[in-house]
Every structure is written in C-alpha cells, then in structure tokens.
Write the structure tokens for this entry.
Amino acid sequence: MKNKTDYPEYRVWAGMKSRCLNENSQKYHLYGGRGIKICKEWLDSFYNFYNDMGPRPTDKHSIDRIDSDGNYEPNNCRWATAKEQASNRKKRPELKNHRKHLVVGITLNEGNTTHKKIIDALENGLLKDQGYATTMRQLALAGVRAKKEQS
C-alpha cells in the first residue's frame, strides 16, 4: 500500500479537514463556521475517504457536496469540475443596510470596534433592530469572516 501522502486525493482530504476544523483557515467561515462537519469515518481515516470516493477522475475534479448545506459524507459527496460545482452553489444572502454592513473584527462604518464587541452585540440582539445579520451563521452565509483578535 502506498503512503497516504502519495495520493493526490490526500491533499483534497487534508483541505477538507482544514476548512471544517481549523479556525485559522481562510475558508473556515464557509465550512466549519457554518456547521459543516465531516463524517467520523472520513475524519479518522484518509483510507476510508479514499475507499468511499475513489480516485479523482482528473486533476480538474475536486470534492463537491451535493447538498451545499450538508456534511462531508459518502452520500453527499462526489468528484466534480469547477463548472459542475458552480451550478451547485447557492446565492449568498445580502446583509440589510449594506451602507452600514458589518465587517467583523475590523469596523462598522460609524467607527472602529472589536471582535468581542461585535460578538457581544450579536449575542445580545443589539444589531437586529438595525437590520444587520443577527447570528454568526448569517454572517458566514453572507460571506463575512470573523477574525480573532491577536493577544
């Protein structure tokens, strides 16, 4: 048996884990931050992932979740081209009051704020009446990425 890192699919598997588990990943907010999970069998073993998915048909194929709100698991994943994946994407909802939109961890147009203040405001419902997205999930769906403050 080849070493798992010799398989091109290993990078796909490692990337999937990073997007779902690593809060520092650039795409975490679109995956793990939205609650997307990896089934235990795949999470624990690259070889289980490979046995279920099989080899990538070409290097132009990447993993695609059939239900983009569903988890990474055998009955919801396939190899797909970028064109096939584009037709499977959902439109991101827009934030209301786009002139005052939230950029988490950086600013509100009215002035600077911190990640903690925004999270506190979300948790206490302070932004709801102003038409802002009111949960971290809504922000993630709208493509706004929360950045942790450096200590």
Observations:
- The chain has a mean pLDDT of 76.
- Helices lie at 8-21, 40-44, 46-53, 82-86, 115-123, 136-141.
- The CA atoms of residues 62 and 79 lie 5 Å apart.
- The chain has six helices and four strands.
